[in-house]
Amino acid sequence: MLTNADIAELTALRREIHQNPELSGVEGATAARMAGLMRDLGADEVLTGIGGTGVVAAFRGAAPGPSVMFRAELDALPIVEAQGLPHRSTTEGIAHLCGHDGHMIGLVGLARMLSRQRPARGTVWLLFQPAEENGAGSAAMLADPRLPAFDYGFAIHNYPGVAMGHALLAPGAVNCASVGMRVRLAGATSHASEPEKARTPTLAIAAILPALLALAQGGVSDPGFRLVTITHLNMGEPAFGITPGTAEIWVTLRSQRDEAMADLRDEAMRIVTDAAAIHDLNADFDWQDEFAASINHPEATKIMTRAAEATGIDLSPDGLPMRASEDFGRFAARAKTAMILLGAGKDNPPLHAENYDYPDDLIAPSVRLFERIARELTG
Prior knowledge:
Keywords: Hydrolase, Manganese, Metal-binding. By secondary structure, the protein is α/β, with parallel strands linked by helices. It folds into 2 domains: 4-173 and 293-378, Zn peptidases (Aminopeptidase, 3-Layer(aba) Sandwich), CATH 3.40.630; 177-291, 2-Layer Sandwich (Alpha-Beta Plaits), CATH 3.30.70.360. It has 8 helices and 16 strands. Strand 1 and strand 2 (54-60) form a beta hairpin. The chain is elongated.
């Protein structure tokens, strides 16, 4: 079990990592730190550069058995952190405001436990994923032929708004699928006194925006749930003498299930292309921040439920699925997976807020939960 010294050292390490955040896809120093810690703790194998900066460390048992993966994320956010925190980010404009620093420490704590008592059978893999925040990391890791095979995969995400000692867990949908659609409309400019001589996107935008918003349907608990959010709009130049000839629209599309996303994308594109044709505009698209839905496998959820109950965590399915996305869903193509939302305190600032900080009191319960799962499956 974790000692008081363990908790003090893990807490200090968490705060050090918090002070040195790195953005999605460029987590080289953070990844090197995690790989070094895994080697120091006696991992049997440490793979680096998986899918970019990803790290995977193995603790093997003597007998054959299942391959069990536990995931944490390496990346931070491009947000200016509030003043006043003693361990505030030293890189202005980048901060761990989602708790990935704490998630990493959960795996470091698990590695400590496995170093003291190796698995009896099978393999426990500790996976440090890059680029979670933009949805690119899991796909890149899964596309890397060096990524090992897993039978099970588990993850924790801290969740402000839920009391400490409580958690949200249920089989089925946990996080929605989402994708960012960036639309560029191109026509021709004219003098502002002669708008009839332009091919301007003004009226096209006026038609596109309400039509896109009308694609939303249902509540998040409905498998057919869809949500469309306009996140950014830019048209023409900031000048009074020019009729605009170009525009850009950023839209986030969201669905509870992956199957619904293809139809939603097609409908959104059709709205844009139809309006562009009417107003003699060219339209092109690109897609970013693509997240698969996270769906908890029934068997993996039962294993995680037993571990949570055994470690004193009070479980509820209320609030699931979440509208927000999480880049854990794609690992379900490789393993039976489950993710739990571990309460970070009802009064803690929300995720991605400038004054959010991962509660250090979650370190010990996270390690205990992961270790309980590891011991059940690998002894």
